[in-house]
Specification:
188 residues, alpha+beta, 27% strand, elongated
Protein backbone atom coordinates (compact mmCIF):
# COMPACT_ATOMS: atom_id res chain seq x y z
CA UNK A 1 0.00 0.00 0.00
CA UNK A 2 1.41 3.33 -1.05
CA UNK A 3 0.72 6.37 0.99
CA UNK A 4 0.91 9.70 -0.65
CA UNK A 5 0.98 12.68 1.56
CA UNK A 6 0.46 16.15 0.29
CA UNK A 7 0.59 19.08 2.66
CA UNK A 8 -1.00 22.18 1.39
CA UNK A 9 -0.52 25.53 3.04
CA UNK A 10 -2.57 28.19 1.35
CA UNK A 11 -0.55 31.00 3.00
CA UNK A 12 2.70 30.13 1.19
CA UNK A 13 3.04 31.20 -2.45
CA UNK A 14 3.97 28.49 -4.94
CA UNK A 15 7.68 28.22 -5.68
CA UNK A 16 8.82 29.72 -8.96
CA UNK A 17 9.97 27.09 -11.38
CA UNK A 18 13.15 27.60 -13.39
CA UNK A 19 13.68 26.62 -17.01
CA UNK A 20 14.75 23.12 -16.12
CA UNK A 21 11.91 22.53 -13.77
CA UNK A 22 13.81 23.14 -10.50
CA UNK A 23 13.34 25.99 -8.09
CA UNK A 24 14.76 29.24 -9.50
CA UNK A 25 17.98 30.49 -7.74
CA UNK A 26 18.40 27.42 -5.56
CA UNK A 27 21.75 26.43 -7.12
CA UNK A 28 23.16 29.94 -6.66
CA UNK A 29 22.09 30.00 -3.01
CA UNK A 30 23.73 26.64 -2.36
CA UNK A 31 26.93 27.81 -4.05
CA UNK A 32 27.07 31.00 -1.94
CA UNK A 33 26.52 29.03 1.29
CA UNK A 34 29.17 26.45 0.31
CA UNK A 35 31.62 29.22 -0.59
CA UNK A 36 30.99 30.91 2.79
CA UNK A 37 31.68 27.66 4.63
CA UNK A 38 34.90 27.07 2.66
CA UNK A 39 36.12 30.64 3.26
CA UNK A 40 35.39 30.34 6.99
CA UNK A 41 37.42 27.12 7.14
CA UNK A 42 40.36 28.62 5.22
CA UNK A 43 40.40 31.78 7.41
CA UNK A 44 40.28 29.65 10.57
CA UNK A 45 43.18 27.48 9.34
CA UNK A 46 45.29 30.54 8.41
CA UNK A 47 44.58 32.18 11.77
CA UNK A 48 45.66 29.01 13.54
CA UNK A 49 48.85 28.76 11.46
CA UNK A 50 49.80 32.41 12.04
CA UNK A 51 49.13 32.11 15.77
CA UNK A 52 51.23 28.96 15.93
CA UNK A 53 54.17 30.61 14.14
CA UNK A 54 53.95 33.64 16.40
CA UNK A 55 53.91 31.48 19.52
CA UNK A 56 56.90 29.48 18.25
CA UNK A 57 58.89 32.70 17.70
CA UNK A 58 58.01 34.01 21.16
CA UNK A 59 58.93 30.66 22.71
CA UNK A 60 62.30 30.69 20.95
CA UNK A 61 63.01 34.23 22.19
CA UNK A 62 62.12 33.29 25.79
CA UNK A 63 64.36 30.21 25.64
CA UNK A 64 67.33 32.22 24.34
CA UNK A 65 66.69 34.94 26.95
CA UNK A 66 66.55 32.38 29.77
CA UNK A 67 69.93 31.01 28.71
CA UNK A 68 71.45 34.51 28.48
CA UNK A 69 70.12 35.29 31.99
CA UNK A 70 71.61 32.06 33.34
CA UNK A 71 74.91 32.88 31.68
CA UNK A 72 74.88 36.33 33.32
CA UNK A 73 74.60 34.73 36.76
CA UNK A 74 77.36 32.27 35.84
CA UNK A 75 79.65 35.18 34.90
CA UNK A 76 79.30 36.60 38.42
CA UNK A 77 79.73 33.17 40.00
CA UNK A 78 82.86 32.60 37.91
CA UNK A 79 84.29 35.94 39.09
CA UNK A 80 83.64 34.99 42.71
CA UNK A 81 85.25 31.57 42.27
CA UNK A 82 88.28 33.09 40.49
CA UNK A 83 88.69 35.46 43.44
CA UNK A 84 88.70 32.57 45.91
CA UNK A 85 91.21 30.58 43.86
CA UNK A 86 93.41 33.67 43.42
CA UNK A 87 93.35 34.38 47.20
CA UNK A 88 91.61 37.72 46.65
CA UNK A 89 88.60 39.11 48.45
CA UNK A 90 85.56 37.09 47.31
CA UNK A 91 83.78 40.20 46.05
CA UNK A 92 86.57 41.81 44.02
CA UNK A 93 85.03 42.90 40.72
CA UNK A 94 81.46 42.27 41.88
CA UNK A 95 81.01 45.11 44.32
CA UNK A 96 77.66 46.86 44.08
CA UNK A 97 78.15 50.60 44.50
CA UNK A 98 75.29 52.02 46.54
CA UNK A 99 71.98 50.23 46.91
CA UNK A 100 71.80 48.43 43.54
CA UNK A 101 73.45 48.95 40.18
CA UNK A 102 73.13 47.63 36.64
CA UNK A 103 76.22 46.15 35.01
CA UNK A 104 77.11 44.53 31.73
CA UNK A 105 80.02 42.16 31.08
CA UNK A 106 82.78 43.56 28.87
CA UNK A 107 86.07 42.10 27.74
CA UNK A 108 89.17 43.69 29.28
CA UNK A 109 91.99 43.30 26.75
CA UNK A 110 94.61 44.13 29.39
CA UNK A 111 93.63 41.45 31.91
CA UNK A 112 92.23 39.09 29.25
CA UNK A 113 89.08 38.59 31.37
CA UNK A 114 85.43 39.50 31.38
CA UNK A 115 84.68 42.31 33.80
CA UNK A 116 81.45 43.78 35.04
CA UNK A 117 81.24 47.40 33.94
CA UNK A 118 78.46 49.80 35.00
CA UNK A 119 75.86 49.73 32.23
CA UNK A 120 76.06 53.49 31.79
CA UNK A 121 79.80 53.21 30.99
CA UNK A 122 79.52 50.48 28.36
CA UNK A 123 79.73 51.13 24.66
CA UNK A 124 77.17 48.44 23.83
CA UNK A 125 74.57 49.11 26.57
CA UNK A 126 74.46 45.37 27.25
CA UNK A 127 73.71 44.29 23.66
CA UNK A 128 74.73 40.74 22.78
CA UNK A 129 76.42 39.85 19.49
CA UNK A 130 76.37 36.68 17.39
CA UNK A 131 79.74 35.53 16.06
CA UNK A 132 79.09 33.36 12.96
CA UNK A 133 82.62 31.94 12.85
CA UNK A 134 82.18 30.29 16.25
CA UNK A 135 78.38 29.97 16.32
CA UNK A 136 78.40 31.61 19.76
CA UNK A 137 77.03 34.78 21.31
CA UNK A 138 79.25 37.38 22.94
CA UNK A 139 78.91 40.66 24.85
CA UNK A 140 81.96 41.86 22.92
CA UNK A 141 81.21 44.20 20.03
CA UNK A 142 82.07 41.82 17.20
CA UNK A 143 79.99 39.80 14.81
CA UNK A 144 76.34 40.57 14.18
CA UNK A 145 74.33 42.65 16.64
CA UNK A 146 71.39 40.65 17.99
CA UNK A 147 68.10 41.93 19.37
CA UNK A 148 69.02 40.81 22.91
CA UNK A 149 70.26 43.06 25.74
CA UNK A 150 71.52 41.81 29.11
CA UNK A 151 72.01 43.71 32.35
CA UNK A 152 73.20 42.27 35.64
CA UNK A 153 71.84 43.92 38.78
CA UNK A 154 74.02 43.63 41.88
CA UNK A 155 72.48 44.47 45.25
CA UNK A 156 74.46 44.41 48.49
CA UNK A 157 73.25 42.12 51.26
CA UNK A 158 73.85 43.88 54.57
CA UNK A 159 74.02 42.31 58.04
CA UNK A 160 71.06 43.81 59.89
CA UNK A 161 71.03 42.20 63.33
CA UNK A 162 74.51 40.82 63.96
CA UNK A 163 73.25 37.27 64.64
CA UNK A 164 75.13 35.69 61.73
CA UNK A 165 78.53 36.44 63.26
CA UNK A 166 78.82 39.79 61.51
CA UNK A 167 78.73 43.37 62.63
CA UNK A 168 75.54 45.32 61.94
CA UNK A 169 75.93 47.17 58.63
CA UNK A 170 78.64 44.85 57.25
CA UNK A 171 78.28 43.66 53.68
CA UNK A 172 77.87 39.89 53.83
CA UNK A 173 76.83 39.07 50.27
CA UNK A 174 75.61 40.21 46.91
CA UNK A 175 72.23 39.48 45.36
CA UNK A 176 72.62 38.88 41.62
CA UNK A 177 69.76 39.43 39.18
CA UNK A 178 70.29 38.93 35.46
CA UNK A 179 67.78 40.69 33.20
CA UNK A 180 67.48 40.01 29.49
CA UNK A 181 65.28 42.04 27.18
CA UNK A 182 64.89 41.88 23.44
CA UNK A 183 63.55 43.89 20.56
CA UNK A 184 60.43 42.52 18.96
CA UNK A 185 59.56 44.23 15.69
CA UNK A 186 61.69 47.21 16.64
CA UNK A 187 60.19 47.62 20.14
CA UNK A 188 62.24 46.76 23.22
Amino acid sequence: MKIFRYDFNPTLPPLAKGRRGGVSGQGLLEAVIALGIIITGVVAALTLAIGSLSAAGASESRLIAANFAREGIELVRNQRDSNWVGARSWDKGIEAVGEANAYAPEWNATTQQMELVPLSNTTTQGRLYYVPETGMYSPIEMGQATRFFRSIILTNIICEDGTAGCAVGDRIGVRVQSNVSWENRGVL
